[in-house]
Amino acid sequence: MKFICTQENLNQGLLVASHINTKNINLPILNNVLLKIEDNILKLISTNLEVALITKIRGKAEKDGEYTVPAKLLSDYVALLPKENVNISLEDNFLHVSCANRKTKIKGIKSDDFPLIPQIDKKHTFYIDGHELKRALAQVAFAVLPNESRPEISGIYINFNGELGKIILVATDSFRLTEKKAKINEKSSKEQISVIVPLRSVWELINILSTITGENNLLEISLDEGQIFFSYNGTELTSRLVEGIFPDYQQIIPKEHNTRATLSVGELLSGTRSASLFSRSGLNDIKLNINSQGMIEVYSTDNQTGEQKTKITGVVEGASNKIVLNHKYLVDGLSNLGSGELIMDIIDENSPCILRPAGDDTYLYVVMPIKQ
């Protein structure tokens, strides 16, 4: 095998291909990336048996072939090369890599035992702007339950509605919940389908959308039984789906409120971070007192450290109210609301409250109170 390409293209491909690989003692070949040359294209292929990735590098192929080498080693090495043409060849079971005045050879493993990458039947296909989906995923992914003790909430729930031209992304860990709505391209399938995508696969997709560049920002999403497929500017990601039924999350979202406060995201975020320094260890509690006259007080106290209070001026509709929240959950939500103003809806101190960006009905964050 022999191939020539630019350092920039090879480095970009390896950044996404090597990201999937994890240290695997039982199957060492899973630590490797498969380099496959055919039709003047170098394919970089990696998998951890749950997620598989193929990214294509354009260049000049002088001889087809395939071989696997340690993914992290190759990626780290190529990142250090000058931005010139890179020559890749296979000789005596070593991958030779040369660029400018640098040459190296890397010991690898023949591709015979490399797992087959699943091919899916594209029964339903949807299209969305890749940059918009990346932002949407980041706005909800932080609320996913980070373990599989409850598989049905260990990923992001995605509802595709081709007829209405939108998708809805939802995540929850049972203490807080996020929902984000986004538009899909008009050439998408017209069906309505719901799936749960594993959190690890979501982060891999975000990495692809952050790393891979190209002229086309349109991301293709295809669904098959138990699998989901993403294609973006020559990079393909295939993942299994989470089995199970996502909770009826609409029941969790309050439909009414007794108090509505409109205030600065930045001021509440700053006040919350200050109050967090004096919250009780283990509880992470801070208190919000909302005065009907338009004053919002962020307050915390601890017998060991002292107390802190921040007063914020806003617009308050309805009765005075109060609620105790976990400051970590509040900071997570505020960090995804943008830099403008937010609307906070509260029923009482024992009910979940809602945060949403003012003037934006596509995103909301629900957080449960700490009951006193």
Shape: elongated
The secondary structure category is: alpha+beta
Uncertain residue ranges: none
Kindly report the average pLDDT value.
95
Give the oligomeric state.
single chain
* The CATH class of the largest domain: Alpha Beta
How would you characterize the largest beta sheet? 9 strands, antiparallel
Helix content: 10-25%
Report the CATH superfamily of the largest domain.
Answer: DNA Polymerase III, subunit A, domain 2
Read across the widest sheet, the strand sequence of neighbours is 14-11-12-13-26-25-24-18-22
Distance between the termini: 68 Å
List the helices and strands and how they pair.
Elements: E1 2-6, H1 7-17, E2 32-38, E3 41-47, E4 51-58, E5 60-63, E6 65-70, H2 71-79, E7 85-91, E8 94-99, E9 102-107, E10 124-129, H3 130-141, E11 155-161, E12 166-172, E13 176-183, E14 192-198, H4 199-211, E15 218-224, E16 227-232, E17 235-240, E18 259-264, H5 265-276, E19 285-291, E20 295-302, E21 306-313, E22 315-318, E23 321-326, H6 327-334, E24 341-346, E25 353-357, E26 363-367
Helix pairs in contact: 1-2, 3-4, 5-6
